Amino acid sequence: MAKVTCVKTDREGYWAVGDIVEIQDDDVELSGPGYEGYSVYNIKGFDKFELAAIFNAKMPEIKEEKGATYWKHTDNKWYELAKMPKYKMTLCGLTKDDFTNLVSAITPASAKETILDKAQEKIHLDSNNMVEASELNK
Predict the structure, then answer these.
(1) What is the pTM of this model?
(2) Residue 54 to residue 46: CA distance in whole angstroms
(3) Domain count, the chain
(4) Of 35, 7, 34, which is closest to residue 19 (Cα–Cα)?
């Protein structure tokens, strides 16, 4: 089992509800006053490395060229990376039912993978990162 810690309250410009802060194994205690602003989800059937691999696979290709940083969108175009988000992944697109099914011991792993597929990388969610790098897209 793995534990995923997500932001519970927005701080505009820094983080948003659902942003993934950390992934830990189930033997790590994630409670106490330091976790009051976070939701911790115990996801059975995956260890932290499996979850990290699922999330990392969603990250876009990034490259540096001529002193600037660029990222490749799913449309296969390059965009300038104006600002890397503090937390690179979010579960903001998941519903309450999705979270219930993720932590359930009876939900099959395949169904959990479908739910986890809704996770999003956050680079494309920042409009400042949506300036096309036309010189790279020729």
Answers:
(1) 0.87
(2) 10
(3) 1
(4) 7
What is the DSSP track for the chain? -EEEEEE-S-BTTTB-TTBEEEEEETTS---SGGGTTEEEEEETT--HHHHHHHHHTTSPPEEEETTEEEEE-TTS-EEE-----SS-EE-TT--HHHHHHHH-SSS-HHHHHHHHTT-EESGGGSGGG--B-GGG--
Look up residue 132 and give its amino acid: E
pLDDT tens over the chain, length 138 residues: 899 999 998 888 789 999 999 999 888 888 888 888 899 999 989 999 999 999 999 999 999 998 999 999 999 999 999 999 999 999 999 999 999 999 999 999 999 999 999 999 999 999 999 999 999 998
| Domain span at 120 | 2-136
